[in-house]
Specification:
Strand 3 and strand 4 form a beta hairpin. The protein is α+β, with helices and mostly antiparallel strands. An eight-stranded antiparallel beta sheet has the order 1-2-3-4-8-7-6-5. The longest helix has 12 residues. Helix content is about 15%, strand content about 35%.
Length: about 170
């Protein structure tokens, strides 16, 4: 109990590192493999094979008792291109759909701090974190609808002026 209280105080005080996908279900996109997910969760509730840009990929859905506590559903997508090499058994993304009321705007801000970007997705408020997290809210802007964890990718700063058009030497 003391350890949990200390961790909570550290997060609130801003001294703890931001949480990552691995804090939920030990799945870290870009690193965790299909075998590790199977070892942790067993067989998925539903498995779908798909083609993505000519590659065989899989999507596993864990619902009900197979999903992490507090989640309605967890969807894991496998198949990731890294440096021109396709890794079919590496987690590409993790989508968590929490039970209503489990996560709200305050919980997200406490756990991850201020977002890198704020916007709208399909008419719903959304937060973007460079650490590798997209948070989608219900229309009320408070209740978390879903949390998508892709591999971490740096977000380029917005340019103030558009790049100059390339000139054609042969034109």
């Amino acid at each position: 109990m003391r350890r949990l209280l200390a961790l909570l105080l550290a997060v609130v005080a801003g001294h703890a590192a931001p949480a990552t996908a691995s804090d939920w279900g030990l799945i870290n996109p870009g690193e965790t493999t299909l075998q590790a997910v199977r070892a942790r969760y067993g067989a998925p509730t539903k498995s779908t094979a798909q083609k993505l840009e000519g590659h065989d990929v899989q999507q596993w859905v864990f619902e009900g008792a197979q999903a992490p506590r507090g989640m309605v559903r967890m969807t894991v997508d496998f198949g990731l291109m890294v440096r021109d090499v396709f890794h079919r058994e590496v987690v590409r993304s993790l989508l968590l759909e929490p039970t209503p009321g489990v996560f709200d705007r305050g919980t997200v801000l406490t756990g991850w701090g201020q977002p890198t970007g704020i916007g709208q997705q399909g008419g719903f408020p959304a937060f973007l974190y460079e650490e590798g997290l997209f948070v989608y809210f219900e229309k009320d802007g408070e209740t978390v609808k879903s949390m998508l964890f892709p591999p971490r990718q740096p977000i380029p700063p917005p340019s103030e002026t558009p790049p100059a058009p390339k000139t054609c030497a042969a034109c």
